[in-house]
Amino acid sequence: MNQMVTLKKPEAMIFDMDGTLFQTESLLIPVYHRLFDILREEGHHEGPTPPDELMLGCLGMLLPDIWNKVIPNATDEAKARADELLLQLELEDLKAGSGVLYPGVKETLQELHSRGVKLFVASNGLEHYVKEIAGIHGIAEWFDDLYSAGEFSTASKVDLVKLLLDKHQIKNAWMVGDRSSDVEAGAKNGQTVIGCAYAGFGNEDELKGSNAYINDFTELLELYNQAE
Q1: Degrees (nearest 5) of the Cα angle 34, 36, 42?
Q2: pLDDT per residue over 152-174, tens digit each?
Q3: Which domain of life is it from (predicted)?
Q4: In the predicted model, what is the mean pLDDT of the chain?
Q5: Which strand ranges, in their side-by-side order, compose the sheet holding 212-214?
Q6: Which residues pair with 15 in a beta bridge?
Q7: Could you give the CA distance from residue 101 to residue 21 in angstroms, rounded to a whole number?
Q8: Do 216 and 108 belong to one domain?
């Protein structure tokens, strides 16, 4: 954690979901392999499943951008089917108990909520996926709202966060996330960015431009306590 920076206490915190609150690979990797098994069975894909690392490296992107990187030569029909399957299989596995939050997420969110901080999610994921994670893992009650690109059809996380800030009239927020899209969304909307360095899905420059960094989710509460 960056101990040298002095931050202003926020009225709200906006969280990315995958790689920030939710340990995505605990759900995604088994789903990913089943998805490609089905695509092959249905004639939408030939050859081996693309490497896990390729998919994990795309986390935080919008779905069309993910498939353009993972299966760039696939037909539009194949990519649309991959969209359907990803949501279907993820929801099935979530309801069956797959997937975990990062250590300390529940306790930290509950404490921040109890202190009057408004909490939001802004994710490039699908609406039902984001809401299902929050509901199943018992954190939905602490959030003022859950925003997803899937629900609002935003072209970027910058747009999604602007929508959130405008609707809830938030002037001073911390954008908390693990990808460059989170850094950009916070910075371009004039907000403080807290870079989460524990997921490891991106490259070493992924969080460049963050105002502070945390290596464990519980360090967020320490940053809040130190803020003025």
Answers
A1: 105
A2: 999 999 999 999 999 999 999 99
A3: Bacteria
A4: 94
A5: 145-148, 118-123, 12-15, 173-177, 192-196, 212-214
A6: 121, 176
A7: 6
A8: yes
Both tokens of 38, joined, read: 């089905």
**Residue listed under structure tokens 């899937």:** 150
Residues in a beta bridge with 212: 194
Domain of 196 in residue numbering reads as 12-24+101-226
Neighbours of 41 (CB within 10 A): 9
On the question of pLDDT at 4 being above 90, the answer is no
Residue 212: what residue type? Answer: A
User: In this structure, are 134 and 202 located in the same domain?
Assistant: yes
pTM score: 0.92
Least confident of 4-18, 41-55, 185-199: 4-18
Buried b (16+ CB within 10 A) or exposed e, 179-209: bbbbbbbbbebebbbbbbbbbebbeeebbee
Number of folded domains in the chain? 2
Angle between helices 127-136 and 76-95 (to 10 degrees): 10
Same domain? 49 vs 162: no
Strands 192-196 and 212-214: what pairing? Answer: parallel
Q: Examine the pLDDT at 203 and tell me if it is beyond 80.
A: no
Residues 17 and 62 placed together within one structural domain of the fold = no
Domain boundary (48, 65, 95) is at 95
CA distance 96 to 73: 33
Tell me the per-residue pLDDT of 24-33, one tens digit each, with 9 for 90 and over: 999 999 999 9
Length of the chain, in residues: 228
Residue 111 · residue 219 · CB < 8 Å: no
Q: What share of the chain is helix, strand, coil (3-state, %, to 5)?
A: 45, 15, 40
Q: Fill in the amino acid letter for 97.
A: G
Residues 122 and 217 in one domain: yes
